[in-house]
Write a structure and sequence with these properties.
With 71 residues, this protein is mostly helical. The chain is built from four helices and no strands.
Length: 71
């Protein structure tokens, strides 16, 4: 079995995506922190969970070589 570049490239892509996502979240800290606490809550919940959605197809590609799971 020959090793594939999918795994290292996929992991590098995930790390780069997270790096830029964190920069975006930190840039939004000041404007969001000035809002009322009840308005902050949905923003932080969304930002805390939104990074997971783009990860699923990439993780599937790393494992299978296809962007979609076969049913």
């Amino acid at each position: 079995m020959t090793p594939s570049l999918r795994r290292p490239l996929g992991i590098l892509g995930l790390i780069l995506f997270l790096f830029f996502y964190v920069i975006l979240a930190v840039a939004l800290f000041e404007p969001v922190a000035s809002l009322h606490v009840l308005l902050q809550l949905p923003v932080w919940l969304f930002l805390g969970l939104a990074w997971v959605i783009p990860m699923r197809p990439v993780m599937t590609w790393i494992e299978t070589g296809s962007w979609r799971k076969e049913r």
